[in-house]
Amino acid sequence: MMLRFILVGFLFFLSVNANAETFIIRVKAGDNMALIDAIKVINANDSLFNYFIDVETGPNGETGFEFTESYESSNNALPTITSRIVIRNRLDDRESRQVSFTGTGQRDFRLVSLEGFASLNIGDSVIQDFGLNGESGGAIFVTGKAGFVATSCRFENNFSNMNGGAIACTGESRILTAGSEYVDNRSSNLGGAISLEGQATGHFGFNGGNVFRNNFAGVFGCDLNIQTSRTISLENNVFDGGNCPNVSVENPFGAMGISANTFIHAGNGIDSTATAQLSGNIFQGPPPGNQLNALSPGSSKPEAACNDFGSGAFVSKGYNISTDASCSLNQVSDQPNTDPLLSLNQNGLPILNTGSPAIDAGSDSVLVFDGEDMAVLPCGYMDINGMARPQDGDGNGGFECDTGASEFLGTGSMQAGHSGAFYNALRNGEGNYVEMLSDNVAVVYTFTFRPDGSGPSWFIGVGDIRDNSIVIEDLLRPTGTSFGSGFDPDAIDYSDAGGMSMIFPTCDAGGGGGGVAYSGNPELGYEGLLSRAQRITSITGCNNTPTANAGLSGSFYDPARNGEGLIVEWLTNGDVVAIFFTYDQNGDQFWTFGIGTPSGKSVTINALYPAASTVWGRNFNPGDVDLQPWGTFNLTWTACDSLDFDYNSTVPGYGSGSYDYTRVSTLQSTTCPSF
Predict the structure, then answer these.
(1) How far is CA 532 from CA 406, 428, 504, 505, 510, in A?
(2) In angstroms, rounded to a whole number, what is the distance separating the alpha carbons of residues 482 and 365?
(3) How far is CA 155 from CA 28, 123, 131, 405, in A?
(4) What is the Cα–Cα distance from 121 to 133, expressed in whole angstroms?
(5) Are the CB atoms for 175 and 167 separated by under 8 Å?
(6) Which of 230, 232, 153 has its CA nearest to residue 185?
(7) Buried b (16+ CB within 10 A) or exposed e, 497-523
(8) 552-606 pLDDT, tens digit each
(9) How much helix, strand and coil, in percent to the nearest 5, is found in the chain?
């Protein structure tokens, strides 16, 4: 996996706003005062923008922090955060270890509070054994207009005798949590794991679903209690009610968009009196006749998947399955009173058994909730177990979502022959370049157009090979510098473009091809997208028969110009494809490409560029794309890893130039020719 980190470093440094000054403090695990001092320094110097606290392995092998007392007799172990901080896992073995933040378990202080316009982004961490009496938020309290982001974290055994056993958000604060676990957190009042109040907003599962298991609330909402005027989104999560005595998700007011979740509940799944739009969810309740008798003392209402208290809150958008008829599932694609045939894997996560009515029972198109203007994926780009989705579970050539948070694996497996270029015939002018680096890692470039139609766009991501798929959890969109002499690698903003997956039932990707899913990033204007991957080019061939010069294929760049580069493919038919990904004079993304016939280890290519653009997403129109001559590329390999790249453009503003490029990536099953 070290190759993954080298590629990330070569190609895009850090996924932060590189236009702003970056401030990094390195802290050794186990050194509580160093962590406290780092936060104090950052709070006192809020003129900068990018603050990183890198947690490294301690001198005695420590991998976390243990707190036995609060900070300066406050209710927090750490100083209240008033600035913007990212805490990063930089442990020696960070691929398999999380940074731990551990309290006393005695309900005497939480980990940290955020207020004002502060933000805290924390990943690959465990937050456990914090607790607080008399205030909400047993581990994390977010108020004002502050924001909290948790990715790949675990919140366990935290407590509040108010609201939010692990996390409480109030005011106009916001929370985004993805790929995280909430286990055995408790609240005496509302929200055993998380509570949202006031005008707080939240997105749960945007870029990877969360697991809520065995949390407890004394009143309502063992997993979530939502009392906010803002819209809340729940996507691809698992809510395992365990011994919850009331309801997993309580929503007395505020709208919810609820898609591709799996509710396994002993009591109610969702209580709501506000609008709750349901799409592609599984509600598995207790078997008929085994329901518990009451929601709360004095109530005789039987427990159910959904409970709207007569308000008509639940609106089905289709593709839901429920073991009862309580969720107003009135669409043709809904399946009320149906057993989804779930079981739990060794990690306690739901999987679909063969023959499950949930397999390919979901949507094959993006979803737009009422009141929203951007499409979202109907089931995300990966399931709760990390599998790419939507798969072709029934083998009919279509890629439909499975209902719920887990996906049934389709046919196929990834191999070296998947390196090449792919596109969707219905979206001609947009495509993917796949570089298979090993049995475990691939790089994917996407060349497309901006959401506003103002010009070309491109993404890049290093992905994991999972069964028949490539899964990229960190897809980046670099912008911010200009072409030619104005290029400045330190000015590049490597924005988060969301995540993506590519699924290949076959290597040749013939017919309709494989499936492609992008989560998109709404903040950048990129909505969710489902597409296809039909093969255009091949480098090694699916029978692994590369040409003699196939080893010259790969990605190349100038180390002094990190952030732009060249993708080269020496094809099985003898031709060479090259695509130059760079920027225009305004700091926006730009790409140009072409194909040529080589002479020895050199090739001249007549390049094309999109002189007129279409838009990203549902409204893509291939007829709006106008490819025009850009100029020529001259490529000469002086060694397998060294490339002389000359260009001469006929388009005003680009001129000519020459770079000495070095190799970034080597494709699987290719070897360097002799020189």
Answers:
(1) 21, 11, 10, 12, 11
(2) 36
(3) 22, 12, 12, 20
(4) 25
(5) yes
(6) 153
(7) bbbbbbbbbbbebeebbbbbbbbbbbe
(8) 999 999 999 999 999 999 999 999 999 999 999 999 999 999 999 999 999 999 9
(9) 10, 40, 50
637-669 b/e (C-beta count within 10 Å ≥ 16 → b):
beebbebebebebeeeebeeeebebebbbbbbb
Give 139's contacts (C-beta < 8 A, 6+ positions apart).
103, 110, 111, 127, 130, 155, 158, 166, 167
Domain boundaries, the chain: 1-229, 231-241+259-403, 416-663
DSSP annotation of 217 reads: E
What is the token pair recorded at 470? 């490539």
* 458 and 447 Cβ atoms separated by less than 8 Å: yes
Handedness of CA 8, 11, 15, 16 (dihedral sign): positive
Q: Which amino acid is at 86?
A: V
Kindly report the backbone phi and psi dihedral angles of residue 5, in degrees, each rounded to the nearest multiple of 5, phi listed first: -70, -35
Rg of the chain (C-alpha set):
26
Dump pLDDT digits (tens) for 166-180. 999 999 999 999 999
Per-residue tokens: 172 = 């106009």
- Which amino acid is residue 227, in one-letter code? Q
The candidate with the shortest Cα–Cα distance to 411, out of 500, 345, 503, 502, is 503
Alpha helices in 226-342 (DSSP H): none
Spatial distance between the Cα atoms of 675 and 673, rounded to a whole number of angstroms: 7
Q: What secondary structure letter does DSSP report for 35?
A: H
Collapsing DSSP to helix, strand or coil, 642 comes out as: strand
Q: Please report, as a single letter, which amino acid is at residue 638.
A: T
Of the candidates 58, 48, 51, 185, the residue with the CA atom closest to the CA atom of residue 111: 185
Both tokens of residue 395? 């083998």
629, with CB counted inside 10 A (0-12, 13-18, 19+), is middle
How far apart are the two ends of the chain, measured CA to CA in Å? 31
Which token pair is 549?
């010069």
**Amino acid occupying residue 432:** N
Diameter over CA atoms, the chain: 86
186 contacts 165 by C-beta, under 8 angstroms: yes
- In angstroms, rounded to a whole number, what is the distance separating the alpha carbons of residues 464 and 666? 16
Predicted confidence at residue 241, as pLDDT, reads 83
Six-digit token string for 650: 């006929």
Lowest-confidence segment of 102-106, 308-312, 495-499, 513-517 by average pLDDT: 308-312
